[in-house]
Amino acid sequence: MTLAQLLEGGVHDVAAAIIGWTLCVDGVGGRIVEVEAYAEDDPASHAFAGPTARNASMFGPPGHLYVYRSYGIHWCANVVCERPGRGAGVLLRALEPTHGLERMRLRRGVTDDRLLCSGPGRLTQALGLTGADDGADLFQPPFELIPPLAPAVVERTVRLGISRAVDQPWRYLEAGSSWPSRRRRAA
DNA sequence: CTTTCGATGATCT
DNA sequence: GATCATCGAAAGG
Question: What's the whole-model pTM score?
Fold first, then answer.
């Protein structure tokens, strides 16, 4: 099954399967190690109340980006999933930096590589993604998606930073990754 | 180490 | 007017 076919499927299947893929923009990026799924009937999703000017690209074709402004300051990027009209997406929350490290350090203004892509706002800044990329097709340059050498081992937790549907385990991470947006807290 | 809080503006009620 | 799929600095232990 190709990635394009996969992206037409359910957003939770996509979230699990996209872990381990490498996303690059103009040769800069890394391995996807953390995402969150936002489904059509999900109270925490921007698409929950139906199409608006902001979330229009979530209802567009899968494999495109939905980029929105967060807290008036940051950009956050989703991979649109399911068929056009469905309104589902996978929020990119963390990458393991692998390509163009120096470029990312400059954009982020940090020297600690753990702070390059470990968070949805950090990730977009490191890759240079902004509202101008809303609706962009990930299967066209400057974007590049590279499959993992072997399927990633994926684990789930509750999503972060939301106030609705807080108990749903719809945050997907590569097990054992040392690049998540937040470290596991002590039990 | 952990918790709190300000920034900053679009979006929606 | 309130909320917000965040981040980083500051304050507290």
Answer: 0.96
